[in-house]
Design goal:
about 210 residues
Length: about 210
């Protein structure tokens, strides 16, 4: 019997574990909160957190594929993202299609219509989107399309590509949400006089 099993033998908390609070559960599972009766311990192999219920590990799930969603991923997008992780082991095509839907919702969060991904990406390019992010968006769009429509790409058993799409979606969130917020927070720390001088310097003449 492993140390982890000894910690929660028969579902009872023992030394080294503690009840998992809703905050624990929400942080670790992308917002999903379990009922009372779950316990949290530390994995003896990776030192990561484990959530248990009646002697069974419920987080991380062994069948959940890919990296966790980026910290700043909007809630509605993260829900689809985690759904894709849940089904990727059984259906790469289904996961890719859901990731495409997650991208569509992300475009809405970024101020686009969210009706036509190709047009949304084009609009973001017109607003100054970098080539690197544009390529990530188009990869998600095209591969997601091919997952649900006959095309040149067949990803029915291609888990590696699906995990790559998850990483791309995280990258897009980091580039378009996390980094701008980080830069703004740093700029806002500048003295008011410095900010005024910068605005005056960069003011465009009519």
């Amino acid at each position: 019997m492993s140390k982890a099993e000894l910690l929660l033998r028969n579902g009872a908390p023992m030394g080294g574990s503690r009840p998992a609070t809703p905050a624990d559960q929400g942080r670790l599972t992308g917002g999903h909160q379990y009922e009372v009766g779950y316990y949290i311990s530390t994995c003896e192999h990776c030192n990561g957190p484990l959530i248990w219920r009646a002697g069974d590990i419920v987080y991380p799930r062994e069948d959940r594929v890919g990296p966790a969603p980026a910290d700043d991923m909007p809630k509605a997008v993260a829900e689809d993202y985690n759904e894709a992780r849940d089904i990727a082991a059984k259906s790469s095509r289904g996961a890719a299609a859901i990731l495409r839907l997650a991208l569509q919702k992300l475009c809405q969060e970024l101020g686009e219509k969210g009706e036509n991904l190709n047009e949304d990406i084009g609009s973001l390019v017109q607003k100054g989107l970098s080539t690197d992010v544009q390529q990530a968006l188009d990869a998600l769009r095209v591969i997601g399309n091919n997952a649900v429509h006959p095309g040149e790409l067949d990803i029915r058993d291609d888990r590696e590509t699906v995990v790559g799409l998850m990483s791309l979606l995280n990258y897009v969130v980091e580039a378009l949400i996390t980094e701008p917020a980080r830069r703004k927070a740093l700029f806002d720390k500048l003295p008011a006089g410095a900010q005024t001088a910068i605005a005056k310097r960069d003011k465009k003449e009519p």
